[in-house]
Amino acid sequence: MRLYSIPLLLLVFWSSAILAADPIHLENVECAPYIDHVATDPNLYRYEPYFVKMHRCHGKHPVPNPKNEKCVPKMQNGKDNVEIIVLTKLGNVHFLNITNHTDCEQRCVISQEDCTPYEQFKSSTCGCSCNYSPSTGPKNCYAPFIWQQSACNCICPKDEHSQVCAKRKVFSKEECGCTCKAKFYARCAKRKQVVDEGTCECVDPEVLVGKSRSGCDGGVNGAMLAVVIIVEAFVIVFCYYFFYRYCYKHNFLGRKKEKNVSSGYYHNGDIPNDTAARTYESTHDEREKLTENTRKPDKELIRQEERERVRLNGLSDKERIRIEEEEESDQYAGYYPEEEKSRYPNHNGDMYYNDIMEVDGPPSSHGGPPSLDNHNLNIPPDYSDAISDFSEDGYGSVTQV
């Protein structure tokens, strides 16, 4: 047997003995002050002794998130300052204060600021709890960011190693795109300028603001302005249309009520071009009879009334009544204005169904009313099937329009 085989054999037996020993069970080290080695001057080691024994808070209580908690001295009466004597390398005496931990507690090392915008900090668990489930993720992950439930945050799906940026730019996970390098921001900050994100050059803030306004960056662009103008124009036209229809309707009904239209008739009489005619005559109240007179100036109306009284003063009651009736008949003969003498479909509302009209004289030979002092409106042949009845004493009625 060679000599080197003997130590090797002894090593094998010793290893077997260790492996055959029973494992031991160690208890968890709770958060409490324990003796520790503390450096008197941890950076320069100028004093002796270099280390001393002091109490320090160590350990962890069994908690769900031990990485989010730490064992620290209590805020009140948790530590004391101990003054010790040390020597410098030159042999000089020096007094040094070192903190000694006397009472410890576990404290969260994170807060709400350490959570994502989609998480809520809970002090009971000393952790961040996600506000969304996998099926109810937030709807405000703006492209190109996507939702990741494990991170409870909107993340950038792009791989920074596969992105190619311009000369002065680098890929940023926070922006999920190419941004100017950090050195350009530091350089511009020293010059009290800002970085132009397009060229990564330092410019004055006024120049950057003017550039943004000229390009409508972040403002209202031309397309948006055009849409707003079109919508406003449509609303104005819409309101004007209904306002016009409302006013026209009420004005038309007002004029219709002012006219006391009594009756009319249909017939296929001897009218040129084989067109039908509708004839009617309206009676008017005292207010309508004075419509034309009220348009004249007050002084002229007073003088006219004075002349009328002088002219009728010397006549008898019978003559005065006859003259007044003739003047009234002449006044009513020209009542209807020229614009109302239009086609029937445009003025079908001027007549009332089953109204009564008084006419001058007996009915004509073809069954219709006499044409004396009557107002005619042309009616298409399609409306000629209406029925009209006129009595011998000069009254008629419209039964269909």
From TrEMBL:
User: Keyword annotations for this protein?
Assistant: Membrane, Signal, Transmembrane, Transmembrane helix
Q: Report TM segments.
A: 222-243
* Secretion signal span: 1-20
Q: Where is this region: Disordered?
A: 266-302, 323-346, 360-401
Q: Does the keyword Nucleotidyltransferase apply?
A: no
- Low complexity bias spans: 361-371
Ranges of compositional bias, category Basic and acidic residues: 281-302
Name the domain of life: Eukaryota
The answer to keyword Transmembrane applying to this record is yes
Name of the protein this chain belongs to: Uncharacterized protein
- Name the source organism: Clytia hemisphaerica
